[in-house]
């Protein structure tokens, strides 16, 4: 059922993907209640894969979660010792394992962020108040920085070169590792998504309050800049990843995030004080480049993905786009 769900996502049937992944998670829970041996690595890998998929739908679309969370404290993390998926490429194998486990730990941090700072029931009306939770935001930011600091060397990156995920490129006679660029791009984007969500209340503060009210607060200005920087240059929207979109997991995630960023960046551009801050700290060239690649992602998918087509229609009058 999980493979069927992934197939639906490859066909851009996002609703069917969600339904089938929920069914797979429910089926796995039934097996866990009957199966006494939970140490089978493939069961653990399947469980945590379902949990990751469910989490992204919850984070991005606020869709309900199953009761699979009841097993989170009982199911150990996979150790990948029962098989080799990339037997001829041990470096790919190690990166896949590290990536999967790192994504799980980032998922846990994202859940803490949503519990502390996000409340779908208020429909954003209290977003500005969350900017006053400086201790909470500081602690979440510290945990995220710690997560990045302890990443294995194979997954580490530099902010300046965040879009370069082509491992092995430039080494004569050594081709890039098989689709490792997708793994690295996905992990980096989820990190920047987490960083954006932690600092998002500051964006609301800058856009809705007068300059006099926040100009005396360096924390608000710094948080706003971090949030805007987190929207910039997501690797999945750049070659070589953008050229193989069907292989990128959870396609709906990127379209949804890009739509949110494009709407926010347009609102920021129409706010003279916010735009001045962006010009001085982030740079107009970076913003325009990021807008271009995000529009390119959505525009390229709109022919086959109804969600991307819907997003394109929303953006058409805002960015002066054409069919």
Strand content: under 5%
Taking the alpha carbons of the first and last residues, their distance comes to 36 Å
- SSE ordering: HHHHHHHHHHHHH
What is the tally of beta strands?
A: 0
- Fraction in helix: 55-70%
Query: What structural class do helix, strand and pairing data support?
Result: mainly alpha
- Count of helices? 13
- State the low-pLDDT regions, or none: 170-174
Mean pLDDT: 85
**Count of all domains:** 2
Gross geometry: globular
Sheet with the most strands?
A: none
Instruction: Give the radius of gyration.
Output: 20 Å
Describe the structure.
The protein has 323 residues and is mainly alpha-helical. The chain has 2 domains: 79 residues, no CATH class; 226 residues, no CATH class. 64% of the residues lie in helices and 0% in strands. It has 13 helices and no strands. The radius of gyration is 20 Å and the shape is globular. 33% of the residues are buried. Keywords: Nucleus. It holds the Pfam family Fungal_trans. It comes from Lasiodiplodia theobromae. InterPro entries: EcdB-like_regulator, XnlR_reg_dom.
List the helices and strands and how they pair.
Elements: H1 2-10, H2 14-34, H3 41-61, H4 90-117, H5 127-130, H6 134-149, H7 180-208, H8 211-214, H9 218-230, H10 251-269, H11 272-281, H12 284-301, H13 306-319
List keywords for this structure.
323 residues; mainly alpha; 64% helix; globular
